[in-house]
């Protein structure tokens, strides 16, 4: 390939994000029927989207409405979120997924010479977004699988402008405690933005959740991000949001694409943001699915990280890549974890009881085959 285009070397140095394989792609590759493919690779909602969101989409999807640009300020959605959280609407930033907000935060705050910090076993977007701004990513070793907050605080040198933390973390499923997080915030200079990525918050048992909105009120440098992609079941529509009490929303607004969140996504999110009955169903199904998977792994003598989220990180061993291929042959997509630096592990999203059962049965059979081979 030619590299005649003038482009910054830090862009050429970026390794592209590796997403879970789409069902349509595996169907093409293997000649399978899409409806027979089981995808447990991207932590999507096995219950699908809530009716409250779909109803709002149907109402918004008129010829007239779709022909108009979206409300670039996402007034209705921001006010619905603000009311639910008990914060002013000016504190909310809406994004094309919360992904986009990570990138905009980096664009607003980083430049060559500036650094971001995150833990080992991180969501690769943090690194890509840092590099894309010419910034320098600093990866801090984890303690076992847990984020080492003391080490991260120590890594916050004067060049650091952003810290990314994820609770529960992806791919480990481990949470940060309220006490540890507050102690951490107390050590971070107010000029450094702490991004707390709570993409999986709704799956976490109440007692393991951080009271993050109360902390946003107390710490102007805290930016909490959440998403409609996971528990709310709207990954395909791309909508997430962030909350910060200080300058960040205003800075991000200067560089944000003016119509970053489309009309149907805004309508869907506003339609379901208060659908607690759906979230309760999702929570209950997920916790029983977690138990089903973890019990299954125990009975297969597989080591796993006990999860507070909607996926489980499980140790397969040196044949993890082979197992992944064999699962794909059977129309089952999981997430191999080599890109997280864990080549012997896989990450499995929690599905419905039937889906978990199908996965566990295939896993059992294939592990027996692989160990005999
Ligand atoms: C899935 C995920 C998100 C959500 O991304 P969206 O862009 O909102 O779909 C954010 N952070 C982590 C760690 C995730 O795994």
From TrEMBL:
Residues 36-363 form the Aminotransferase class I/classII large domain. It catalyses: L-histidinol phosphate + 2-oxoglutarate = 3-(imidazol-4-yl)-2-oxopropyl phosphate + L-glutamate. Its cofactor is pyridoxal 5'-phosphate. Pathway: Amino-acid biosynthesis; L-histidine biosynthesis; L-histidine from 5-phospho-alpha-D-ribose 1-diphosphate: step 7/9. PANTHER family: HISTIDINOL-PHOSPHATE AMINOTRANSFERASE, HISTIDINOL-PHOSPHATE AMINOTRANSFERASE 2. Belongs to the class-II pyridoxal-phosphate-dependent aminotransferase family. Histidinol-phosphate aminotransferase subfamily. This is Histidinol-phosphate aminotransferase. It comes from Mesosutterella multiformis.
